[in-house]
Amino acid sequence: MTSAISISKLTVIRDGKVIVHEFDLEIESGKILGLLGPSGSGKTTIMRSVMGLQRLTKGAIRVFGTPAGHKSLRTRVSYSTQDASIYRDLTCSENIEYFRAMQGISSNSTGEILELVDLTNNRKQLAATLSGGERARLALATALVGKPEILILDEPTVGLDPLLRRDLWKLFHRFTSEGKTLLVSSHMMEEADHCDELVLLRGGAILAKGSPAQLRKKSGHENMNSLFISLVEKQ
Ligand SMILES: Nc1ncnc2c1ncn2[C@@H]1O[C@H](COP(=O)(O)OP(=O)(O)O)[C@@H](O)[C@H]1O
Ligand SMILES: [Mg+2]
User: Fold this and answer.
1) Which residues line ligand 1 (CB under 6 A)?
2) Whose CA is nearest to atom 8 of ligand 1?
């Protein structure tokens, strides 16, 4: 098994407050790891740490064996933040072209990227006039500039209705079938079954990890919300 991302004893303390505590995780290449936890549980902080954007109090993170944040990882790993910055007054194509220019990347064309997220027919449309689902796919497209091998997506499905969420997860699975590795966060336990592996997070610490089936078997709970609540109550 090759780990795409390896996190060991990650600890982040800010203003005397422990935000992430002794967090360990291995993410296998070609899998979707779901980081699930309520708001404030540390999801964004962990993702920022993997990108090398967060000052670590303790611990080590390696991405493809290289220390997180190393410049050789710049095109291999992409990060889509919670409030993805797409420009409303630019068309879909122009948004992607802007990202490509900003990153100085030419490994894939704007047309190729829009095709990956099924926005070819919207290429000339202003982002302001896109539907919620289309806007989410355009935000995702900005993370595909440069053909990254790892996608780190912070709450990509937030605010989308169930059908659009399902479509986005289908797209994520298409990416893993092509060999990409995904780290995806969500505060919705219902998203668990779309992931190969899960980490349930609370207060910056791991409540449980494993595949959805393993977690169900171990806890005896079918429903992910009840499973999460039972783990919190046991703490
Ligand atoms: N810049 C900051 N300074 C101090 N505390 C912060 C800062 N950013 C986030 N936090 C705190 O860290 C905790 C985890 O935040 P975050 O990683 O954003 O969680 P999540 O993404 O799961 O909602 C929260 O309690 C939040 O208030
Ligand atoms: Mg967050």
Assistant:
1) 14-15, 19, 37, 39-45
2) 45
